[in-house]
Amino acid sequence: MFGLEKRDANLLIAVGALVLLAPIFLNPFPEGSALAQFNAGYPDLMQRFVIFGIFAIGFNILFGLTGYLSFGHAAFLGAGSYAGVWMLKLLTINVIPAIVISTLVAGVFALIIGFISLRRSGIYFSILTLAFAQMSFALAASVLTPITGGETGLQTALDDPRILDAANESRNIPAPSLFGLHMNDSAQLAVGDWLWTFNVGYYVAGIVMLAAFYVAIRIFRSPFGMMLRAIKSNQQRLNYTGLNTRPYMLACFVISGMYAGLAGGLMVSMDPLAGAERMQWTASGEVVLMTILGGVGTLIGPVLGAGLIKYFENIFSKINDNLLHQWFSFLPQGLEDFVVTIIHPFIGKGWHLTLGLMFMAVIIFLPGGLVELGQRASKLFKKRNPPQTGGQKEPAE
Amino acid sequence: MDQIILQILNGLDKGSAYALIALGLTLIFGTLGVVNFAHGALFMIGAFCAVTLSRILSLSHVVLDETKKDFLGKPLKVEVPYANDWFGPELGGAIIDWAVPLSILFAIPVMILIGVIMERGLIKHFYKRPHADQILVTFGLAIVLQEIIKYYFGANQIPTPAPEAFVGSFDFGALIGLDSGKVIYPYWRILYFCFAMLLIGLVFAFLQFTTFGMVVRAGMADRETVGMLGINIDRRFTIMFGIAAAVAGLAGVMYTPINPPNYHMGMDFLVISFVVVVVGGMGSLPGAVLAGLLLGILESFASVREVIEFLPGINQVVIYLAAIVILLTRPRGLMGRKGVMED
Prior knowledge:
The structure holds two protein chains of two kinds.
Chain A: H1 6-25, H2 43-66, H3 74-90, H4 95-117, H5 122-141, H6 145-148, E1 154-155, E2 177-178, E3 181-182, E4 186-191, E5 194-199, H7 200-221, H8 223-233, H9 235-240, H10 246-270, E6 273-274, H11 281-294, H12 301-315, H13 321-327, H14 333-343, H15 351-365, H16 369-381
Antiparallel strand pairs in A: 1-6, 2-3, 4-5
Chain B: H1 2-32, H2 39-57, E1 60-69, E2 75-81, H3 82-97, H4 99-121, H5 131-153, E3 169-171, H6 172-175, E4 184-186, H7 187-209, H8 211-221, H9 223-228, H10 233-255, H11 265-280, H12 285-302, H13 305-310, H14 314-329
Antiparallel strand pairs in B: 1-2, 3-4
């Protein structure tokens, strides 16, 4: 189906179902219950799940297939974001041009950076991409202020030209829309105590993400993808057989950059604001974390990783001491205080600490990330181990 | 002329911080072959050693001062540091005043201990793994260390002043025959530069003139052969990791009066230090020092007003631009050796 093998088609269908039904199963706890704050089914967070999923899928195409660790991928996300906001400002409030142009702009940007950075490999490549990203960040935050809005960021305004749109009669800044469907519109459905929110922006981003995921599967299974894996396992041997690996690498880098640009374009379509901090190297580090945490070189891993990190960021950082005291109130007073004191550094503002520890644990014990965890778990349950969905084995080195 | 000298001086203090961090990075890379992304965090921990010690020294208790009265005529409550009680007000005051230089003594054992624990506890297990894994695990460690410091010291910058004696500026221009007042420079920054040079000299002397250093250099050249000669090279490399951590930590200690430490200062320096290492040549100790100083000076020249007017924003990007140009024209960096990280 769709030109995919059965296993991949099943994976795609599963991911599709997850994306489409996410508003329902991400809200497993009834409204108003004590656990309702663990619900992730609100539009803002779900949009971030899929958008960062796209970003991580793209990063994984580069890092997972070729082993080239780029520490400057956020530069493409930022470039895409700026391009997207400018389209929303100049052309039309419809998101389609914004998304398309931001992908293309990021692609061109990646072509330039990749052309230079890919002359070197290994740690040098990481440093070069890092240097380019830091340069873009520094320039965007200072000198390029007329284009990027500097520290305050770039956003849509009331008096933007928007040459393709009808004159704006209302006194409000128009919200990004898709042929009249506003991105921040939602339909709500209450079933019993549960409240499900179906958001237009989320579904737009979700469908784009499914398309991106499909393309990623095709790339992974194509001869081109095979070639990229060959580069990872032994580039020298490829060179000795007379193959020039540079065009393959460059194509891969550009594709990866375009994914980042697509994510940036979607991000500004949901919330038309782009800031320079999106290009900072911490943002590049974040996508690395997502990919590793989920599982490098696997299809589904980056999406899982992105979801997990964004969930932590939004939900776990909201837990505070009062809540902990509530949870552990069944313990005797002294013990309760003790437990809360122990947990305190890891929650709320300290969630980065949890993230760092989790990340280290994954690198040390589970180089394959969550996907490997799943594989090991299923191995425990089943004596014979059928090949797992999405668990793309690395070629022998 | 005076402008040029001033900018060179300006570049030297920042450049020597880069050089010290880059030296430690190169030392670790040259001995253990590990790319340590947590090195900036070590720099930051060093700076917080200074903060901790100055806090410990100024621990104080409240006493009633009978000589001073508040507006109600009651004796005024005065905070008296314990140091004053123990050593008398003059020596005690001096000790508190000199907290930052004293922290050097405090930071050396702490940093060596942290370095050794890091190497034995974590990095040891990553020698056989790919470089990407090493980068990632030390990156994770850097996040963890940063967050721990943030938890205990908060997210704000903590001002830690230099001793009274070093406040003020030195008229450097007068010394070399220029008009006085043209080229003036803070004492502490001059001290920082001298301190950095001393430290670098010590590290080089240690490697060059001691038996221990000789064995380490032999191990850097050919680890297996040294091991076969019956020398426990791993232990020596662990100690070198501790020394590299101490160098980064001392760079941080002495930097606190120049730039009040906060929890992410390490990362800010780390990115540039990596660029420095790559420009200097991976695995080359003199290259790291040279590149650190050169890039520091280059950065300060790019921050001159005339240059910024001519090329806006150049001060922000000049280091990265230099790195890109050098990497593309001299792939091994300024003083890189053949066969090191040539993948």
